[in-house]
Amino acid sequence: PAPKDDAGRRTYELDRAHVFHSWSAQAALDPMVVTRSEGSYLWDADGARYLDFSGQLVYTNVGHQHPRVVKAIQDQAATLCTIAPAHANDKRALAAKLITDRAPEGMNKVFFTNGGADAVEHAVRMARLHTGRYKVLTQYRGYHGGTHLTINMSGDHRRWPNDNGTAGTVHFWGPFLYRSAFHATTEAEECERALEHLEQLIRFEGPESFAALVLETVAGTSGVMPPPPGYLQGVREICDRYGIVYVADEVMVGFGRTGTWFAVEQHGVTPDLITFAKGVNSGYVPLGGVIIGDHIAETFAHRVYPGGLTYSGHPLATAAAVATIEAMADEKIVENAAEIGRTVLGPGLRALAERHPSIGEVRGVGAFWALDLVTDRETKEPLAPYGGSSPAIQAVLAEAKAQGLLVFTNYHRIHLAPPLNVTEAEVKDALTALDVALAHADAVYTG
Ligand code: PLP
């Protein structure tokens, strides 16, 4: 509903009249007017305060309005608002160094983009030029962006209305024991069968047709599914065997979300390319990019890379990245994400699962968690259909909001993506709100 506050209502009416929103039927929208934010909280136009565990779109890694990042943007604006990509600039150069310092060994260059989808687009372009091949492997239950290529690469229902089958993408099943595509009963079995399936698929599609395999290190929007031990190493080996460029899409999980700077660190693998965006500067100014392995950078040492963007490495965005990364390092924000997940958020969600039968599974790592909500634990019937919603999940979300908690949601799932510097007290408040909200899911439980 429109806010009661006059200025808030005016914003609401202008938005409804003129703003065309993403992924939505426009007539059905009812956006919340947000007027300010700080740390883990934001406020609506009528002054109600919300604990923001949505991360907006899982990107506010240092929380809202971090003073160091805000000041860095202000200072940069006062000095050099913009400069074309061809010039060198102190913040762009330093951001690239700070990013590559945290990437695996042998990845020393960054190509900056404006966000995640164009990072993935450029990673694929690099892989195609590097290999001289065209096709791209991606997994079902994955998301890589909203552009023509990246939506075709995505393995969720948003591809369907955009699919024209020409982008050269082939989908495979990744490991996901809770809803196993392989009838596996253990993580080890799931891992082994998923790798076998991937290799078979490559053999039958033509191993020499694939330029790249693009994989979210922890699939995010599709359900927060940390891969079993050994899976990513297996993927690395398969890519090596068939000369396929391994692109780790860390747009959602990079910069500490899972409790390490990059999630690949926890799996001991070095991809050929890493895509990032979101958390690199907490989304304060649009920024993304590709971290490039030395052997691929070498391909373009004496050969033109045929790609670019007007705002590649924009000074306001890269100044925000420098301040974000330095604040994260100085304030031990990545360590906090790991610790809060291990000691408070993970155990707290598991305790909720003991009280609420509608929680089919709790999954996650660091400051990145999902509740897989079901109407029956035996059949694992989701609380909302694939690609859709249901009155029950809507009731859970509405109650969470009434309790002052914002979460990220996808189909039948609730995702928790708090700022990585969230406090224990804030996590406990969120758990209390969820405890109340989940009664609406339990109410339709039939198991
Ligand atoms: N890749 C992953 C893993 C994502 O989660 C997203 C966005 O959610 C993207 C790519 C696309 O990023 P953007 O929306 O910045 O284009």
From TrEMBL:
SUPFAM superfamilies: PLP-dependent transferases (SSF53383). GO terms for molecular function: pyridoxal phosphate binding; transaminase activity. GO terms for cellular component: cytosol. It comes from the Bacteria. CDD domains: OAT_like (cd00610). InterPro entries: Aminotrans_3 (IPR005814), Aminotrans_3_PPA_site (IPR049704), PyrdxlP-dep_Trfase (IPR015424), PyrdxlP-dep_Trfase_major (IPR015421), PyrdxlP-dep_Trfase_small (IPR015422). PROSITE patterns: AA_TRANSFER_CLASS_3. Keywords: Pyridoxal phosphate. Belongs to the class-III pyridoxal-phosphate-dependent aminotransferase family. This is Taurine--2-oxoglutarate transaminase.
